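[Discussion] Sanity-checking designs against the backbone

I'm trying to build intuition for which residues belong where. Below is a structure token string of 464 positions. I'd appreciate it if someone posts a full sequence so I can compare it with mine line by line.
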């Protein structure tokens, strides 16, 4: 169905072949507002003059004066990526060797279409990028914040759409920082419960009675410090969605109580004998191997089967290498509203694409936030970028340096819990200093929500 003419997304078409350009403008003009250029110089002038970023660009690599080499077209791709980082660039070219395809994607292209190509295929590929970019044709797609065009991320989007409206629990698995909470939010957003609350409870942030109170609520006087009657998350969320993050850290006694809620919806406030009923949809997330926890007696097998009626696995960033540049452009655009965005030179872009990002999307985002804060409006060289990269970068699968840990392990009074508490406290202190005490910003840097950060700060303060 043609898009509303008043809301047509803009398509920048760069091709020196007038016959091809005329044909494309004719067949795509119903759905897109076409802006044309035929070489690097005219395209640069057009790109500079655009106050609003085009949704898409379709660029030929072989442009005058040397139409048999890709340099002119690659320069256009880089210019678009720098001036309009939200524009999704597709290449339409006969110069489709693996080296040229790789270089085009390194420079910012999100897709490569080989000439000659059927017009129906071009339309499908353009429409796919409009949907992925959240553009005007995204009317029926509520998925937000899951960025990338890799097969792995497309599979994740498809799974979200398929199971979003199911009433059953979903277990979301994936490495730390890969996007499990974003996935959970999209399962809620794409469901019929989307107008109801969405709440997240980090099961590792509280201990004992406090965690049980967070889940189920308590009566006044139910335990020391319970000065008022309080609703729990199951009651607060109503008919909405409750995400139990880091569910593998849930104590065994609470696992039994959670199992009861999943089986018949029944739970009790602390200090209360009258049962209550929950209508919430439960999602659970973990970065741990639950099978190991079950084997070691730390997690109930019956609870696992209840939570994993449906399972979604969020891919780690090293599994979707091709999405790194797209994520770079996406988060640069997000922070551009607050500070002047930076640029990476060619060597820095190569370093970016080669980096393993052991902290996944969370680490990638935090690096962009740091770069934007420290180098607004600047072009960043590889050596500068390398200094900002996480110290967790791996070499042959081993952390860059383990000397500090080895030294700590050989101390006579070494205690793992004490070391973990120290690392947690230092990370929170650093994040709070970085954002001058702004809890929301610090929580974002740490990859947790504000409520969880408050809970961890209170817990650490109690231990001091």
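Best answer:
Here's mine. Compare freely.
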């Amino acid at each position: 169905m043609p898009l509303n003419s008043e809301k047509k997304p803009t398509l920048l078409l760069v091709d020196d072949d007038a016959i091809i350009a005329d044909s494309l403008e004719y067949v795509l003009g119903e759905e897109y507002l076409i802006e044309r250029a035929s070489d690097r110089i005219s395209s640069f002038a057009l790109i500079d003059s655009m106050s609003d970023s085009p949704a898409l660009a379709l660029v030929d690599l072989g442009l005058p004066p040397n139409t048999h080499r890709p340099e002119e077209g690659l320069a256009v791709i880089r210019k678009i990526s720098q001036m309009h980082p939200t524009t999704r660039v597709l290449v339409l070219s006969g110069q489709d060797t693996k080296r040229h395809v790789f270089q085009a994607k390194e420079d910012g292209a999100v897709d490569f279409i080989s000439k000659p190509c059927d017009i129906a295929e071009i339309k499908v590929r353009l429409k796919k990028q409009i949907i992925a970019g959240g553009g005007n044709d995204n009317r029926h797609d509520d998925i937000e914040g899951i960025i990338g065009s890799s097969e792995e991320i497309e599979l994740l989007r498809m799974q979200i759409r398929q199971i979003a409206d199911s009433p059953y629990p979903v277990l979301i698995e994936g490495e730390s920082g890969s996007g499990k909470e974003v996935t959970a939010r999209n399962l809620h957003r794409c469901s019929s419960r989307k107008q109801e609350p969405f709440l997240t409870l980090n099961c590792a942030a509280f201990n004992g009675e406090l965690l049980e109170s967070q889940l189920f609520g308590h009566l006044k006087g139910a335990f020391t410090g319970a000065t008022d009657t309080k609703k729990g998350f199951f009651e607060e969320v109503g008919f909405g969605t409750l995400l139990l993050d880091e569910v593998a850290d849930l104590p065994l006694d609470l696992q039994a109580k959670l199992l009861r809620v999943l089986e018949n919806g029944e739970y009790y406030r602390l200090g209360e004998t009258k049962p209550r009923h929950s209508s919430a949809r439960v999602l659970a997330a973990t970065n741990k191997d639950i099978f190991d926890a079950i084997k070691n007696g730390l997690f109930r097998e019956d609870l696992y089967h209840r939570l994993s009626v449906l399972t979604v696995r969020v891919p780690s960033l090293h599994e979707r290498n091709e999405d790194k540049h797209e994520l770079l452009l996406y988060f640069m655009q997000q922070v551009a509203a607050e500070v002047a965005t930076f640029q990476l030179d060619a060597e820095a872009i190569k370093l970016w694409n080669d980096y393993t990002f052991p902290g996944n999307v969370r680490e990638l985002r935090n690096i962009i936030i740091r770069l934007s804060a420290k180098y607004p409006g600047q072009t960043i060289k590889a050596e500068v970028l390398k200094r900002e990269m996480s110290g967790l970068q791996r070499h042959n699968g081993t952390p860059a340096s383990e000397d500090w840990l080895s030294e700590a392990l050989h101390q006579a009074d070494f205690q793992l819990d004490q070391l973990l508490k120290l690392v947690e406290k230092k990370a929170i202190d650093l994040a709070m200093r970085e954002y001058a005490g702004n809890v929301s910003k610090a929580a974002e840097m740490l990859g947790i929500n504000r409520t969880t950060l408050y809970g961890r700060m209170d817990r650490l303060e109690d231990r001091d």
